[in-house]
Amino acid sequence: MGAAAYARLRDAGLRPTRQRLELASLLFDGHPRGRHVTAEMLFAEARADGARVSLATVYNTLNQFTGAGLLREVVVEPGTSHFDTNTGDHHHLYFEDSGELRDVDADRIEIKGLPPIPRGAEVARVDVIVRLRRK
Amino acid sequence: MGAAAYARLRDAGLRPTRQRLELASLLFDGHPRGRHVTAEMLFAEARADGARVSLATVYNTLNQFTGAGLLREVVVEPGTSHFDTNTGDHHHLYFEDSGELRDVDADRIEIKGLPPIPRGAEVARVDVIVRLRRK
DNA sequence: CAATAGTTTAGAATAACTCTAAACTGCTGC
DNA sequence: GCAGCAGTTTAGAGTTATTCTAAACTATTG
Ligand SMILES: [Mn+2]
Ligand SMILES: [Mn+2]
Ligand SMILES: [Zn+2]
Ligand SMILES: [Zn+2]
User: Fold this and answer.
1) Is residue B116 within 8 angstroms of chain A, CB to CB?
2) A75 Cβ partners below 8 Å, 6+ apart?
3) Which residue segment(s) compose the domain that A108 sits in?
4) I want to staple A5 with a disulfide (CB 3.0 to 4.6 A). Which of A24, B29, B110, B130 is the partner?
């Protein structure tokens, strides 16, 4: 069950501890389409799953995974970070009412007319967020 | 000096108090190109200007101005909201190192390939954020 | 299996706000 | 002009998301 998680941590150079394995498993196993979670969401899920993990470790782990390129952080609202298991180039639909994030593949999208990048700077990433509300 | 600020508050249906006039003045007067401020930034600026305002009022005022359409809120990093005096349709360049936000006019930009809007939802706004780092 | 570097964790600390309730002030009407 | 009141301000307490601390634990290596 945790074989994929184990390999993932190894490849990322992260020591495969019980907590990291559990969290990686929850995040990645059986979720081919990618997930978007907050620290609290993942913490609740881990607890519900019977895992013994602290909230501090969930935060630490999410940040470490992000640093290692296993996750990416998406900021759509003040006050809470969302972590995204889809690290490929993509954008988001954000449902303001429910807080749901849905992926939009980047190569279906074309952005024209972006200004020239200032000298000495480079593009780290381009985020497109389509904010939706109930009609 | 505060005539423009006075009219602006009046038109927005906000009672022109000393604090609101001062903050509106700092935000809008002599800044035709628009500004991006955090609550702490505006608070410091007001204090430096000799204004007697509390931080709570700065927050209240920024939220009220936003509600009234005089400002808009931009979220680029977890933990802090930026308020934007440019309420027109536009996007942003975000310098990750310095935290600076720079406007990108929306009608210079064209976004193609956005997915269909789900039934029952409507687009509240589309945010494009080009994140830049030092090369 | 010992040694140790890396990890986890409870609880304290911080940062960015928001709330409360009391004091104050911009309008309105007289 | 001023009373009266709704709307506003504010100090300080409270909240929430997140990070820090430093002590206890564990994966890895020899
Ligand atoms: Mn972070
Ligand atoms: Mn707000
Ligand atoms: Zn995503
Ligand atoms: Zn702007």
Assistant:
1) no
2) A81, A82, B75, B76, B77, B78
3) 90-132
4) A24
